[in-house]
Amino acid sequence: MTQTTARPTSPDRTEGGAALLEVRDLGVEFVRRGAEPVRAVDGVSLSVRAGEVRGLVGESGSGKSVTSLAVMGLLPHRSSRTTGSVRLAGTELLGMAPRRLAALRGDQMAMVFQDPMSSLNPVVPIGTQVTEVLRTHTDVDRAGARDEAEDLLRRVGIPDPRRRLRDYPHQLSGGMRQRALIAIALACKPRLLIADEPTTALDVTIQAQVLELLRQLVAETGTAMLLITHDLGVVAGLCDDVTVMYSGRVVETATRRELFSRPAHRYTEGLLASVPRLDSARGEPLRPIPGTPRDVLPWSRACAFAPRCPHADRDCADPSLALRAHEGLAAEHLARCAHPALPEGSEPVAAGAGA
Amino acid sequence: MSGVHLPPAGGPPGAPEADPPAGTPAELALEPVAEDERGTSLWRGAWRRLRRDPAAIVGAVIVLAFVLVAVLAPLVAPYAPAGAQWANQVTPSSVPGPSDEHRLGLDSFGSDLFTQLVYGARQSLLIGVVSTVIGLGVGAALGLLAGAFGGWVDVAVMRVVDIMLSIPSLLLAVSIAAVVGPSATALMIAIGAAQVPIFARLLRGSMLGQRGSDYVLAASSLGLRRRRVVMSHMLPNSLSPVIVQGTLTLATAIIEVAALSYLGLGDPNPTVAEWGRMLVRAQDRLATDPHLAILPGACIAVTALGFTLFGEALRESLDPTFRR
User: In degrees to the nearest 10, what's the CA dihedral of A260, A264, A269, A275?
Assistant: First the structure.
């Protein structure tokens, strides 16, 4: 464990272009007594390089949050089983001793949660919540931690930080709370930041501010970020690469530009088509994906999206559908689809789905 | 609490926050915080609601008066307590009533009744508080253990607590007092032990409720040690029902002190003033001198009422769903 002791401070943390976070074939099963285990995540692979943002997109129940909790090692040990491999800067995290993993959490990797009100402890002042991370992972003294906390709050754009340190979470506005949460996550300069729908609980103007803040911080510190969201507008504004999940599996992965200009999987295509557009004709109805996320087939029998897919046919009932490259798409653009929307076949959806 | 809280403003709750559009951090620094949200932390809000609640004020006055009398007993009481100085004035058929020297008259042993009542308050407070501290301390420790660890620790601790709970508390107290022997210490241990299960269950339930909450997950995601998460995050959020229960339990404890003394399990020294024992002694003179029973009885009832009123008001004021 070299990276826990040696804290790299220079923004250049790329290790010969290798990905900082390398998830291979991740599977998560929830086991309940007297019931079939539920497979929430199946064969998920993704990687994030330092200084880059990967979007993990999918609707509720697609397994994106479970994936992030599995990376952090925060799933309950008693009721879940995690398989595959999660490597942070080359170190395998799955199966690591809980104590060593806890030493990495908050230090090398940190997480920003969806709801800043419930993720901050209501009875502990903001300052204490920032300093306790610093004091857990570094050996600064009380006064030093306090100064550093003040500095962190200032960096995330909280005015009058010295006074704010003594405030309780309910005394801050929603946007301030999310900033405070980001400050806490960034306190120890983590190399990986996982943001789980960081803007969902905020109103639109604050969303824009928080996203801008995250983008600045990633650019300044060279942190790798895994951004979990169901908001394609957020993806368009912030991510370098995108991974789309459906029903626990990755269905498509591509660079942002590729994904928005040439969505291959029919689910991604539907997602993009359902985003309302400023340049569409007045009164034009929204185009939702028919059905609900509950209308799924088990991947072991067919494409899980087939029941909702307008292009589904006999070929989709193929249990061995693989995530693969397709003709006419970039080499790193992979899709798990029997009838992908390929450039020459169907009309591609234009880039820049603005939210 | 910190000193930066402003006094609560009277503005409408949830006033819209004026957030400027996105820009550079310097511009973002202008984002104001709704002023009326300031200074409304849990205990502050509770204090504000308590001050407006008549029941809380009545309860607080009674409790305060009781505590003052108990603490300042030597100043309040006209005579020394271990009296029976006027035993020669007491005849088998009558006890001297109120007079200039003895405002409430004498008791059946020939001590000043007012002095006995005042020192009885001291005894009740001492035993009541110590036993509640014992009950709360042991109970909270067990509840903390069960709630923090869960799993088999939880099962083991809670089975022990269930067993304790299945024994009627007075019976448990009597058995403990019988084993330890009658003394004030025995009373404290007996009453305290009978209260352990309530506090254990309360804190455990409250801790379990916190375990699944987002901020506990967030704290774990920061790599905080388990002890830190339990002690500085979960515990402070779980304490308020325990504090309320502590106030209410003081009322029960004072009644139980009287009850156990009445049953002869209190301090064996007959000169120690104790409300419960005063009731026993008054029994044979109930027909001729009922005030000997009524006065200590009223003391017990009023004190218990004071703690109950205050405890209930505290519970309501701390419960965010119960806002009037």
Answer: -10
User: What's the rounded Cα separation, in Å, for the pair A353 and A144?
Assistant: 45
The first and second tokens of residue A240, run together, are 């370098």
Give the type of residue at A316.
C
On chain A, the residues whose CB falls within 8 A of the CB of B28 are 157, 209
Cα(A209)–Cα(A215) distance, integer angstroms: 10
Question: What local confidence, expressed as pLDDT, does residue A350 receive?
Answer: 40
Q: Which of B272, B265, B267, B262 shows the shortest CA–CA distance to B300?
A: B262
What does the alpha-carbon distance between residue A106 and residue A193 come to, in Å, rounded to a whole number? 9
Sheet of A91-92, strand order: A38-48, A21-30, A80-88, A91-92
| Cα radius of gyration rounded to whole Å, chain B | 26
Yes or no, beta carbons of B220 and A125 under 8 Å apart? no
A151 neighbourhood in chain B, CB within 8 Å: none
Hey, what amino acid is at A105? R
Tens of pLDDT, residue by residue over B179-211, are 888 788 888 888 898 889 999 999 999 888 888
Residue showing tokens 């089975």: B159
Q: DSSP alpha helices (H): ranges in chain B?
A: 25-28, 42-51, 54-71, 73-76, 113-149, 151-166, 169-180, 184-211, 214-221, 226-228, 235-262, 275-282, 291-318
Residue positions counted in chain B: 324
Q: Give A281's contacts (C-beta < 8 A, 6+ positions apart).
A: none
Using alpha carbons, select from A203, A198, A281, A274 the residue that is nearest to residue A232: A274
Residue of chain A with shortest Cα separation from B23: A209
Could you report the predicted ipTM of this complex, rounded to two decimals? 0.78
